[in-house]
Amino acid sequence: AREVFQNDHSGHDFSHTLRVFDLACHIAGQEDADVYILGLAALLHDVDDHKISPDTASEKTRAREFLLTQRVEEEIVDRIVNIIRQVSFSQNILPPDTLEGKCVQDADRLDALGAIGIARTFAFGGSRGRRMHDPERLDANASIQHFYDKLLLLKESMHTPTGRRMAEER
After folding, report:
1. The dihedral of CA 32, 38, 39, 42: what is its sign?
2. Helix (H, G, I), strand (E, B), or coil: what is residue 94?
3. Residue 161: CB partners within 8 Å, gap ≥ 6?
4. Which secondary structure element, helix H or strand E, spans residue 84, and what is its range?
5. How far apart are the C-alpha atoms of 21 and 46, rounded to whole Å?
6. Do residues 120 and 16 lie in contact, with contact meaning Cβ atoms separated by under 8 Å?
7. Residues 6 or more apart in contact with residue 82 via CB below 8 angstroms
8. pLDDT for 88-147, tens place per residue?
9. Distances in Å between the alpha carbon of 142 and those of 16, 128, 147?
10. In the predicted model, what is the mean pLDDT of residues 42-69?
11. What is the CA angle 66-105-4, rounded to 5?
């Protein structure tokens, strides 16, 4: 993840990965989830993201190959890749099917809230040449529109009690 995101300026940098990892581990401790599984999923959750790496997104190639080179058992790799598939806000309408997936998704969404989330929104928009604001709301890709389309909805989409408490604070 550090190598993949070393030159990223979209808000999906390695610092984001580490924040998601820390948040997911914190939530796991409160919710009694498997930290090994969700920790690896959190660290690799964006390496095959469709916005960052469209060529590897469908198969989660980078995550899968890295885990296999580290001699992680194939069954565990499959569990981790399943969690990664279920993290994305825009790619999933159903909630994750495991507690670990719920913890990672909550952590990723928590990083989109509060001051860091605001900064990430504008960093992503800038990295894609998007307008900051369209007062007539004709530009669906304007950064401010992202608040209405996603960020203001995140608090209600938390799956764990810990995630809900943290979202309320942010």
Report:
1. negative
2. coil
3. 30, 31
4. helix 74-85
5. 11
6. yes
7. 97, 98, 101
8. 877 767 789 999 999 999 999 999 999 999 999 999 999 999 999 988 888 888 999 989
9. 22, 10, 10
10. 91
11. 35
